Amino acid sequence: MTASAADADWAADESESVPVALPPLMDQVNVSRNESGNATAGGSGGDGGGDEWPQVVMFKLRTAVLLLIVIAAVLGNLLVIVSVMRQRKLRVITNYFVVSLAFADILVAMVVMPFNFSVQFYNEWIFGPVICDLWNSSDVYFTSTSILHLCCISVDRYYAIVKPLKYPIKMTKKMAFVMLAATWLSPITISYAPIFMGWYTTKEHILTRELNECEFKVNKPYAVISSSISFWIPCTIMIFTYLAIFKEANRQEKALHARAGNAMLMHRHSREVGDKNGALHINANTPTKDRNILKMKREHKAARTLGIIMGAFILCWLPFFLFYVSTSLCDTCEYPEVVTVIMFWTGYFNSALNPIIYAYFNRDFRNAFKNTLACAFCSFCKRSASDLDAMERLERRGSAQLRVPIPSRRTSNLASL
């Protein structure tokens, strides 16, 4: 009887101890994460507020910076698209690629950045494995699309400056649309298809995948192939094309300065001969030559601006791809999570950087941005795109009238005497 009572007491103790068993490791992490989050949220009113306020300040600062990047990327690239649509002067073949690149950057800001922002805000993945694959696929897809756009722009500038006679034949609107179609379709082969089919990762990662985490764990072949198609091969093409562009641009600049010096000497000689013979001299520069010189200068400015955009893209994404390839090929390498966050958002920042480069280095875009913003925020401004084109024609006509040839000025001075 005593033994059975003891056994009953032992069974009762055992049954009572079951509910207080330690939870699984992931639940412990979630509990500790929630407790730390609650402590952070209520730290200012409790006794431990003095220890938690730096974390609260850093969290709010990080959130504000990431939100600023997202908003700037959306609004800035939207401003680029609207300005090109409103200004006929900007509707050239090169800007077809610029507008398409701006659209890709908007999709990066609206499709890719918010999910990464949610991970930083909640400190875990809350959308499930299907959305995780969609997010990783979109990230790879839009990154590849952006750099392929820049590669197309470098090819366009190469023909415009290095081979100007072949440019109207090669770079037609049809060819531009073919290049844009290839730019948007080709990255699917390294983004959505292999990620949703499971070819990008290892079997161990698929079997041990958790619902509340979204780790982009890739195998070595996919890391090499995807980084080569997305970054290394297009980046190499861009570097060589822009080296050829700047080499030819420098040669043309030197030839232009030499031609200007010869024209000045001819002008001075003709003026001296005209003064001796009592005849008016002829201006050395013809309208056709002036138009060619202005066109060449405009092409050089466009190449410089787009070269700066290419350099900014490489500076923003080169650290990420170096980190991506090295960590994928090294099985024993360890790194803090904050490094991954910095690498990703440095690349995302490039989507917000391009409109700033346009506004700072290109006068046509700067004027278009000013006019578009004025029409957007000023209720008294009702100008349409046709009105802007008419104003541009009046400005060009006025500037052409100001460039009066020297013989005409001498005639008007003689008439005034």
Structure description:
By secondary structure, this protein is mostly helical. The chain is 80% helix and 0% strand. It has a single domain (57-267, 297-379), classed as Rhodopsin 7-helix transmembrane proteins (Rhopdopsin 7-helix transmembrane proteins, Up-down Bundle), CATH 1.20.1070.10. It has helices spanning 2-17, 25-41, 49-86, 93-122, 128-161, 167-170, 173-185, 192-197, 203-207, 220-277, 287-329, 337-361, 363-377, 385-402, 406-416. It starts with a helix and ends with a helix. The model is unreliable at 1-8, 10-48, 279-286 and 401-417 (pLDDT under 50).
Write the layout of secondary structure elements.
Layout: H1 2-17, H2 25-41, H3 49-86, H4 93-122, H5 128-161, H6 167-170, H7 173-185, H8 192-197, H9 203-207, H10 220-277, H11 287-329, H12 337-361, H13 363-377, H14 385-402, H15 406-416
Helix pairs in contact: 3-4, 3-12, 3-13, 4-5, 4-12, 5-7, 5-10, 5-11, 10-11, 11-12, 12-13
Q: What does this entry show, briefly?
A:
With 417 residues, the chain is mainly alpha-helical.
CATH classification class? Mainly Alpha
* Main sheet attributes: strand count, strand direction, barrel closure: none
For the record, the CATH architecture stands as Up-down Bundle
Strand content: under 5%
- Strand runs, count: 0
Query: Termini distance?
Result: 140 Å
From the structure provided, what is the oligomeric state, counting identical versus distinct chains?
single chain
- Element order: H for helix, E for strand: HHHHHHHHHHHHHHH
Tally the helices. 15
Number of domains: 1
